[in-house]
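Fold it.
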Amino acid sequence: MPSPAALAIYAVLLDARDAVQGAQRLAVALAAQGGFDRVTIGLCESGRVRLIASSQIDPAQMPADLRQWMQGAMDEALEQGITLSWPQTSSEPGHIVIEQQLLQRHLGGAVATVPLGAPGERFAGLCVERRSDVSGPPFTTDELQRLEQILVLAAPALRWLHAASEPWHRRARRDAMRQVAALRQPDRRTARRLVAGAVIATAFLALAPLQDGVGGHARIEGAEQRVLAAPTDGFVKTAHVRPGDRVKAGDPLVDLLEADLRLERERWSSQLSQHENAYAAAMSRADRVAAATSMARVGEAQAQLALVDEQLARGRIAAPFDAIVIQGDLTQQIGAPVRQGDTLLTLATTGRHRVIVEVDEVDIERVQPGQSGRLALSSLPWDGEDIVVERIAPLARAVDGRNVFEVEARLATPRTDLRPGLLGRADIVTGRAPPLWAWTRHAVLRMRVAVWSWLD
């Protein structure tokens, strides 16, 4: 159980807000309780002792030579991890006390230095002085042991205050060194192997230049798509195909009602006959004016007939090439009116396709025409396809709250069994980079864009 003197010294440190204030209170209380002429405390930081408290004078006001000798005496005791004094008593074992001699020679009387902290983790030194004109004799072994017992609670308390006031990087460094020292123990062989493996794996991920790429959602489109529009005003008569059907060049697709056009043709045919008869009658009368008029009307009727015949021919919409119907289901719109120019069907080529990859705006700068990549379709996840970038759309568009650029690529090996509209994901090879950077780059770039937006 700690002695009352140790408890009293410990209580002095409880109200301190930091290590400097706690060390100052400790030095004053210890000097008063132990009858020492001066008590000085120094902290070990980065391998050097820094004086932070003294019972008589501000350490910053100490003469340079005295401060140097004091620090040397504390370093000597900390390195050996044992309490040192000079003059030595006959019962003390032999230790290196060169710095203690220099300090005592400068001050006179007797000096003693006590290292504070656990063995192997000394963090501070405490130096006590007793002048020759006060009591004279050197410190005895019993006095030094009593001093160590008084500090049995004060040393950990001062250590806590010092740790709490240290900058975060020093605390992190100290903790890391403590963990490294713990790993050196013989019973931590497995832990050492795990740490070594983790270090090697991290170094590989951070330094190995592996293949790097840019990914995005992809879709299959026909290399050529054509929209078939209504050639004239009319009504849907028959729909021969539906989306997904494959057609060959010349196959009928849609028929429009012809009744109105046939009536129009009969009307112009009868007018043509009338005008031809009028022309013949005018020629028989030698009426050149009437003949010229009738001939002009004959030309007009023939032109109108040709127009109606063309409209009748275009009333049946046929496939312009071998294709697949990708849009336009008119089977549910039989009899529905259509106006000239209305979209009826959309066709796409069957043997040639293109791949559209949506690349995020923060990654588009690394994509260039000619780069290769890999396409994986949702319907064929195990059959990857090689692709080659051909062009990049110059404008971005908004998709799901983010801006993307459409990158057009072609299949390295054309396939006839693919259908336009298939979705998947494509990865474009853009070079080489360490995996760790490749995994975190997108988040870093996104964060940079967010910071720029916030600063604006």
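The mean pLDDT is 83.
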